[in-house]
Design a protein that fits this description.
Number of strands: 7
Largest sheet: 5 strands, antiparallel
Structural class: alpha+beta
Low-confidence stretches: none
Distance between the termini: 70 Å
Strand content: 25-35%
Number of domains: 2
Order of helices and strands: EEHHEHEEEE
Oligomer: single chain
Length: 151
């Protein structure tokens, strides 16, 4: 058994440091930086979109949009509808998403962390309803198609 302490005071700074003469201190000298690097990598990956996360989120969003009617106006851009559908998938960090475009050309979906770009095109078909909603905000069946590449 080693009688050396795990922590000792540094001679000049008087701060506690790992004692390299103790086996536990030596192990901590090696393990502490490895753990710190792992934590930093984990934080980095949770704050940045990956190519796979973006691809999964865009295709899931298209499926969600196709699944049920949505309240929308055919006269205005559907950027918010597309952005919310992508973010509602829960894939990716939830920030840094860029959705740009219009209904005619499609919506360009990208992030600042990835080089991949997706194009989502929407076709809105009105749903006949007896509800007293204004004509500008009707329920529409959405047909969303996704292609890889810019619109």
């Amino acid at each position: 058994m080693n009688d050396e302490a795990v922590f000792i005071r540094h001679a000049r700074t008087r701060q506690y440091v790992y004692n390299s003469r103790n086996p536990v201190g030596r192990a901590l000298i090696v393990i502490a930086p490895i753990v710190a690097i792992g934590v930093l990598y984990s934080l980095y990956s949770s704050w940045h979109w990956s190519e796979g996360e973006l691809r999964t989120a865009v295709y899931q969003a298209a499926g969600t949009l196709n699944a049920k009617p949505h309240y929308a106006s055919r006269a205005t851009s559907q950027e918010d509808l597309v952005r919310n559908a992508v973010l509602d998938t829960g894939t990716g960090p939830g920030h840094g998403l860029s959705v740009q475009g219009n209904g005619v050309a499609g919506y360009r979906i990208s992030t600042e962390n990835t080089g991949t770009v997706f194009c989502m095109r929407l076709i809105l078909t009105p749903v006949a309803s007896g509800a007293p909603f204004p004509a500008a905000l009707e329920r529409h069946h959405v047909i969303a198609t996704v292609t890889e590449g810019s619109c």
